[in-house]
Every structure is written in structure tokens, then in C-alpha cells.
Fold this protein.
Amino acid sequence: MAEKILIVDDDLETLRLVGLMLQRQGYEISAASNGEQGLAKAWEEKPDLILLDIMMPGMDGYEVTRKLRGNPATLSIPILMFTAKTQLDDKVVGFDVGADDYLTKPTHPSELQAHVRSLLARAALQRDNEPGGAPDERHAYVIGVLSARGGLGVSSIAANLAAGLFVQTQADVVLAELVPGQGTLGTDLGLPDGQLLNEILSGPVSEITREKVQSALVAHASGIKLLPASESPRDIYLTSQTRNYEMLVTRLSALANFVVLDLGLSLPPFVVKSLPFCDELFVVLDGQPNSVRRVRLLVDQLAELGVDRASIHAILNNRLRSESQAPSASVETDLGHPIAVAISAAPELFLQAERMKTPAVFCQPNNVTSQQFLKLADSILEREKVR
């Protein structure tokens, strides 16, 4: 298949001539005459290379580059800035915002072709050299669980989603707790501290092999495989290792039928890097107005990052029994997004589960709250069938 090049330039003559020249070299060409149109095409078409002018009315090339680099779907697409701006400062700004190469107009066709070939070859080499980067290695259905603030039971929701999927399928299910320094699985489920996750995140990316990740998974008595995070607060610095996270999630995706990721809070860089791997996301909230407002903002920002709103599911987690608890319909209206399920308050159940070192679903499968998780797992399985 021919490599696709997106050309973004408000000069229609440049679009025509450069497009024709590159088309004759065997490339598939897509064109956009302004920044907004260029962004839309880049996000829709995922070209192999973007040839981008700087000086355009409305959104200039610098801003287009910032937005492309801020979206996981276009983060790694090579960008060649092709512009009449010749000052050194202009080039520096271009590289600072994320351009991979820079050419000034006018340029000889052979020079442009050489830069295009070089960028495409470099991108292909990078893909080939990344262990586990082959797309056919992945087969898991990946589910991310997160929230806009702490104290809402994200880890508990993730554990019981994983449990529900295992109960309903008896397939390989991995539950990975991805925030070092904030681990709870070790304590809640009687597992070792998450030093193996620390080793994966602190070492070279090239050493994150399938075998290493597989050996880091802990088999729980329930049948789920787990990757717990450490409890030591100082380990939070490891969340900056975004490339390690990408490789870790890639490896996990090849080791199970279902992978549930406990992503923790908000949208730090490692979560943003993990989003493209997720087939769907569950966002946890309670009925408090501040929680609803912050989750509404979180859902909007996930959509801005290219996540399909239809794949974002809100879970209303009623952790305590209270007459002041807002009704699900009211929360759904205020949120402006459907509530997938309202988890009934069951403090006794979760206390018993903690004592038994197991997810609540395994503790009392017939409990109303456990049944809610099982039905939620069924809804995931329905969507997984049509993936």
C-alpha cells in the first residue's frame, strides 16, 4: 500500500504542484487548504507524513503542530514544515512545538523528496525496532478505569469489573494497577508490593519483553492475573516514564483476552499515552455536584483527545447509604452523559471482601451489587463481540 502524505497549505498552487510531484513518486496524496481542515483530515486519515505550511490564515502551522502532538492518535506522525519563513527563530519554534524536519520555500524537488524519504524511513525503522510494536501482537479487549478525583473507588471498580469478566467468560483476565505510589491491590487482595511494576517502568524500554511482563503478573486465587502497584508515595515519579507505559500496555494486550487498566486520576501524560490502547473507558463519579462537574470536564477533554464519546461509560458509585444521595437520572442530566450503571451502596459486602482478600463479586456473587458488576461485564462482552 502506498504511503499517504497529507499536505496542508493555503497556497493552492503549492498544493497542486507539490502534490503532483509526490504523487508521481508513488505516494498517496491528501490535501487541506487551512489549519482546521488539516487537523480534521489528520485525525480522520492518520497519514504517514504531514507536510505543513506555517503561515496560514486562522490557525497557523505552529498551532496545528501543537494540536497534533497533543492527540494520541497523531502524536507520532512525522511532520515536515515547509514554509517561506527563513529566520532561525522560526525554525527553533517549529522544532519546539514538535516538527520533525524543516524546509524553506522555494526548494528543489529532489531535496524535498529526499527529506520525505528520510522521514518516512525513520518512522518505519522506529516502528520496526520497538519490541512488541507489531499491530498483530495485540488481541486483548482493553478497558480503562479512571476518575477526575480520588476517593471514588476507582480501584475497587476496576477489580470488580475484572472479576465480573472472569466469572462470565472464564477467559484470561488481567487487572493492572498503573499508578506507582498509590497501589491498593496489594493490601486489598493479599498480594506482594508492586516492585515488579517499578522495575518495568524504571528500566530500558527495550527490556520490557513479553516474558518479563508475563512473569510480573501475580496469579490470584480467584483466577485473575494481577499487576499491583507499590504503596510507597515516592514511587509516583515513575508515572513520567511514558514510553515504558506504552510498551507495558502493548505487552499486556498480548497476554490475555481482557485487560482492565486502573488508570487512577485525571489525565497525566501516561494516561494520555494509554488511551489509544483502550477499547472503552469507565469514568467513576459520585452524586456530589463537584464530582459531576469535574467528570463532565474530564469526558469533554477525553473527547478532545480523540476518544469516541460512545466508548466512554460513566459509573455512579454510591459508596455510602444516604437519603441525600442524588438520583441516577438527576446525575445523568447534570453530567450530560449517560450513566452506564449506578452501583448500590454495600459497605458490608466490601468490608467482607476486604477481609477475604477478594473482589466483592467473588465474595457474594448473588448480592445486588455483585449482580450489577456482572451485568456490566455482560454489556462489555456485547460490545467486544462487534469490535
